[in-house]
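Recall the central idea of this unit: under ordinary conditions, the amino acid sequence of a chain determines the structure it adopts. In this exercise we apply that idea directly, starting from the sequence alone.
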Amino acid sequence: MNRRNHREQAVAAFGDPRQAALGSVFERACRDYRERIFLSFLQDDRMVDVSFSRFFGQVEVWSAFLRAREVGQGDRVAFVTPKSPRQTRLFHACWRIGAVAVPISESLADLEMGFILRDCEPSLVVADEAILGRVRELAGDVQAIAFSGMPEERDRDEDDDFSAMESAEVEPEDLAAIIYTSGSTGMPKGVMLSHRNLLVNAISGWRAIAVGPGDSMVSLLPYWHAFALLAEVVLAPIAGVRVAIPGDKRDFKKNIGRYQPTVILLVPRIADALRKGIVRKIEGGKPMVRKLFARAMANAGRVCGDDRGGGGWRDRLVRRMFYDPLLFRKVRQAFGGCLRFMISGGAPLDCDDQFFFNCVGVPIYQGYGLTESSPVISVEWGGRSRLGSCGPLLSWLEPAHGGDYAFRDESGAQGKDLRGELLVKGDCVMRGYWRHRDQSAKMLAEGWLHTGDIGYLDENGLLFLDGRRGNMIVLAGGEKLHPEHVEDAIKKSDLISEVMVIGDKCKTLYALVNFDPDQSEGMEGEPLRERAVREIRRTTEHLAAAQRPRDILPLPEFSVEDGTLTATLKVRRHNVLEKYEKEIRLFVDGREGGQ
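Accordingly, the structure predicted from this sequence is:
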């Protein structure tokens, strides 16, 4: 049975995800896929495979351990650790007893981590051994233990009936997880996601993306990232998908071929790094190889039907018989030779990166969503994709599934055929923010989840986004623009590692930039600034005049530790403006006065 047939039959047999709970669904999945591999990871350079049956035994032991520690239904269990198979186990142990999982980024500064640990009021904190001392200091009186203090697994006999310990009586609307999001201002807010939120989103995503037994999913995304949580911890077991968990970035890069993924989840930064790594390797090769690869990409661009050209049967034949086996297949072999597609989320995907991998034969499908929507709202898939789009909306937003969507323009008009802020409603919309009723009311006004993202649906039902409503810049001349498109263009320069565009009420735009240390090595002062200005002019020459920054202000590297980046590595605009207020004011005043 192929993946699509398996998916369609399994979704039909699943029943109504609105009436299920994660613990019982997980038990059913472990029974159905008993001997299949669920988790894989490298340990002492040896691949360790954990079957569904064995993993269920591990979850049972940890569930009993939590109950023995008097963790009950509705209690929060916080865990702070780099991504690991132990996290996956703890999620399911929590859900089996009706507890609420609270994953916390280990990279957060003390201020934010301490706030989250106090705010969620956990009954127990479990932390990685390397940071246990720090976590205990921040957790105060709450009991904090190391993952190494959790009990060993119990091997499951083949004849076990999966009923040694019954799941708690959990209602679909009960809280399953609190995911803290780092906004541009203030402390993080805890997004409350229910069992129904996550299950409906998983099944809705499964209706779009055909995955199943035989697929292997790999990513570097942490499980406090709602996209990875949904795909790897919730959807993968339901679909019978194997999840391979790299130890870190180095492991991912070095051993990706050994994991043999069919699906890779990533964010645009990783996609860009993968493309640049391939290109650098080709450019460092023989001149004939560089020339041949350039011709292959030109041919593939025509075959892929991109706006850059059109392809005929000769192009397709040459690609299939010559360029693909000679060049592109070798690129795919570096990923293990089984890779079907990649899915990008978390930020807008650069069209050049998407185009490159489409040509190589490994399409990147762009998805869109918010933690507050559990998280996926739309995603591209085979036959429903276009460069720059986020794909069609998922089925949970269809009236037949109890959902709806609309766009609200600047005049306040609301409809499906407008260009404006996207509003959504349905079973995947969060229950609200933990202990923040006022903020919940603002985000969920009039029964709609206000995404804050400006966009529209094209004639084919594909979602396109322009930028964040709150980020819009209005220049002194009245020109309105979203900075995201300008920033994405500027970051195509290898010299610039991070950028934030400013210009509200100014005559023109300016760019606050971080330089890539490798690319700027040996340069400083005015020569470096002039080079950066030239790079920005080059990368933004295709934009409208008002969208081209006039000058740059170099700033120290933005980081999670100093609060200028979120844990998901997005620029915190308000914090940057606040931290460098004096420098920015002097810079802008000097430039505006000189115009």
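Confidence is low (pLDDT under 50) at residues 155-159.
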